[in-house]
């Protein structure tokens, strides 16, 4: 029997008064004599306002389920399998529920005909009624580059969506992911209303329109998944990982500038970098696990290790025309569209084209073996995965993707479970050895695969300068809290910034990212790294990893700020009985400079004696526990308060 990987714990099952309770790390799924969860707890609170339900309708109205039951079928440390059933006058609904150690519950639902039905089935909806206070934010995938439309605050009038493989509803500290690999067998009356999010006074209902018309045949099956979040505990030391992007061959020898004595690697070490990422050019073949510059790679790895720096190497989501296997496997492993076309086609040097590969194919095993063998061969410290965790839509029937509709049309599927299996195997191979898995994705926070990474890097969807000017018009704070914060998923996040001076710089991004306990990852070894290094040092000196975090949306008992454009998040740390605060004070106005008034309540600190800019050392004026802070438009300051 395989061991449950750290930090998860073995699956537990309790049967109390006819109720089955399946426990995983931090969460519990309850089944009260029915096959769908009657309650889910996560982050210490209950998610459901009412039990989940399968609503069936005849032409005369709703059909009552006259029989309902659920039994434990099998239990291991890794998984609990339950069998369930419901019966009405039209059909039998059979369920197989598999709850895995990270909290993903896969549901296989089959509708079977009754021997002598008394009614006919006309509609079938899956409904998940969430407590309204636990469903204030949403995230779905697929999204769209240049926009944050797939993440944000749930509108008061709800949402209507076409089929989406990933939908998450929750709040800043947790929630619930719903997922499905395809809309196979769905019969939707309105294509743009396959999935609804319906708020009411105390409830937010996630509704999936499985059938809006009578089923064309029986038996009929649907497969979907659910996963309560956060999926695992946030690592306490993630602030100290200090990741920097842009390693290159020879950086341990090359001077920072012509004639300088300090090398680029020495500068990185001096500025506090602890993790370096070497992008795609560590190998001439995109997304490959071998290089023809082995001696140089080993020298770089040794030089990094001498300075206490970890090195992560790039692996992505593509197969290159330069790869030795291309001619043998391309047709079998590439993502294909329903019309037979290829996806991607990235061009890089040396000249090659790189097309998106599907991990529902033999390439998953080849890539996994390649990564593991590369780590053994070269001794680097983990992987930077570019898009690898995303289950790209695929219709390549050669490896089992895609499906045919009743009229024979080919539709794409999203291989969530195959990508998840790849990521789990990669995690189980690397994590016990202390190797890091860092995932870069944009618009995608699907927890079935995101669960098996140590951190993620998000934000390239705004790499075209979309956030210039007033960034919060394109990326509202609620959107940031839903997708880019990570605490709601249990996985730390960093933000990606391609600077477009003067209208879009790292200074603009830090104004709202640091409010959410999220860092910007530096690119290269120039001014951006120097700016981030100062922030790293200030936060480490304060001790943020040991501090309590009090974000702007729930710290009113401690902090009040004026004017309205100013928001403040804070870290509270007690050392030798003395309370200290590190405040992130941000002016979110894109045009107006302000003189902020930040008041700490007596509960936060009986008396404010000293307030200092943590980056400049400037002492700030204090009057009656109120700190006066000048802030230009879209700028932040770090303030240590004693």
Notes on the protein architecture:
With about 650 residues, the protein is of the alpha+beta class. It has three domains: about 10-200 and about 220-225, Beta-galactosidase, Chain A, domain 5, CATH 2.70.98.10; about 245-315 and about 360-390 and about 415-545, Glycosidases (TIM Barrel); about 550-640, Golgi alpha-mannosidase II (Immunoglobulin-like), CATH 2.60.40. Helix content is about 15%, strand content about 35%. The strands form eight sheets. A nine-stranded antiparallel sheet has the order 8-9-10-11-20-17-16-13-14. The longest helix has 16 residues, at about 365-380. The protein is globular. The model has no long low-confidence stretch (mean pLDDT about 95).
From the alpha-carbon coordinates, what is the Rg to the nearest angstrom?
26 Å
What is the CATH superfamily label of the largest domain?
Glycosidases
Terminus-to-terminus distance: 53 Å
Please report the first level of CATH classification, the CATH class of the largest domain: Alpha Beta
Low-confidence stretches: none
Helix-strand category = alpha+beta
The level of helicity is: 10-25%
Number of helices: 10
Shape: globular
Described by strand count, sense and barrel closure, the largest sheet is: 9 strands, antiparallel
CATH architecture of the largest domain: Alpha-Beta Barrel
Q: DSSP strand (E) fraction?
A: 35-45%
The CATH topology name of the largest domain reads TIM Barrel
* Average pLDDT rating: 97
Report strand order across the widest sheet.
Answer: 8-9-10-11-20-17-16-13-14
Number of domains: 3
């Amino acid at each position: 029997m395989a061991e449950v990987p750290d930090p998860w714990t073995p699956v537990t099952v309790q049967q109390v008064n006819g109720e089955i309770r399946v426990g995983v790390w931090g969460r519990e799924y309850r089944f009260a004599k029915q096959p769908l969860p009657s309650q889910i707890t996560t982050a210490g609170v209950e998610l459901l306002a009412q039990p989940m339900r399968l609503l069936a309708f005849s032409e005369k109205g709703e059909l009552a389920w006259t029989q309902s039951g659920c039994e434990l079928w099998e239990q291991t440390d890794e998984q609990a399998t339950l069998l369930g059933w419901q019966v009405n006058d039209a059909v039998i609904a059979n369920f197989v529920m598999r709850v895995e150690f990270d909290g993903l519950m896969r549901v296989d639902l089959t509708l079977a005909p009754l021997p002598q039905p008394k009614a006919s089935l006309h509609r079938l909806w899956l409904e998940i009624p969430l407590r309204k206070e636990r469903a204030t934010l949403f995230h779905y995938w697929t999204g769209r580059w240049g926009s944050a439309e797939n993440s944000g605050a749930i509108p008061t009038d709800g949402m209507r969506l076409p089929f989406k493989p990933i939908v998450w509803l929750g709040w800043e500290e947790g929630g619930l992911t719903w997922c499905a690999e395809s809309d196979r067998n769905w019969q939707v009356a309105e294509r743009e209303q396959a999935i609804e999010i319906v708020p009411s006074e105390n409830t937010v209902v996630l509704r999936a329109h499985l059938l809006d018309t009578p089923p064309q045949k029986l038996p009929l099956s649907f497969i979907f998944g659910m996963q309560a979040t956060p999926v695992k505990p946030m690592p306490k030391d993630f602030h100290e990982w200090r990741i920097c992007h842009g390693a290159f061959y020879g950086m341990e020898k090359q001077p920072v500038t012509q004639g300088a004595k300090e090398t680029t690697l020495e500068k990185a070490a001096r500025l506090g970098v602890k993790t370096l990422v070497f992008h795609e050019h560590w190998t001439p073949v995109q997304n490959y696990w071998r290089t023809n510059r082995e001696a140089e790679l080993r020298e770089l790895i040794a030089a990094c290790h001498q300075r206490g720096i970890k090195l992560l190497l790039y692996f992505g989501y593509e197969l290159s025309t330069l790869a030795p296997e291309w001619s043998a496997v391309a047709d079998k492993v590439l993502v294909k569209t329903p019309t037979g076309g290829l996806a991607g086609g990235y061009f890089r040097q040396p000249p090659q084209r790189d097309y998106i590969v599907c991990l529902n194919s033999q390439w998953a095993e080849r890539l996994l073996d390649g990564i593991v063998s590369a780590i053994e061969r070269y001794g680097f410290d983990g992987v930077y995965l570019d898009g690898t965790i995303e289950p790209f839509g695929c219709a390549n029937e050669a490896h089992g993707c895609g499906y045919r509709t009743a009229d024979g049309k080919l539709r794409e599927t999203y291989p969530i479970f195959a990508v998840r299996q790849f990521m789990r195997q990669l995690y189980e191979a690397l994590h016990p050895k202390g190797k890091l898995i860092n995932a870069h994705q944009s618009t995608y926070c699907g927890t079935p695969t995101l669960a098996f990474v140590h951190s993620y890097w998000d934000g390239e969807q705004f790499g075209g300068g979309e956030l210039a000017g007033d960034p919060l018009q394109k990326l509202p704070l609620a959107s940031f809290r839903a997708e880019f914060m990570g605490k709601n998923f249990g996985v730390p996040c960093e933000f990606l910034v391609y600077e477009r001076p003067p209208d879009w710089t790292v200074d603009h991004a830090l104004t709202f990212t640091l409010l959410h306990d999220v860092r910007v990852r530096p690119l290269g070894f120039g001014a951006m790294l120097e700016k981030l290094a100062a922030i790293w040092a200030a936060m480490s000196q304060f001790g943020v990893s040991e501090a309590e975090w009090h974000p702007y949306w729930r710290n009113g008992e401690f902090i009040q700020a004026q004017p309205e454009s100013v928001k403040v998040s804070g870290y509270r740390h007690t050392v030798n009985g003395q309370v200290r605060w590190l405040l992130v004070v941000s002016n979110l106005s894109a045009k107006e400079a302000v003189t902020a008034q930040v008041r700490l309540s007596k509960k936060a600190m009986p008396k404010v004696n000293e307030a200092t800019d943590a980056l400049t050392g400037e002492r700030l004026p204090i009057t009656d526990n109120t700190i006066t802070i000048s802030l230009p438009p879209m700028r932040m300051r770090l303030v240590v308060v004693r």
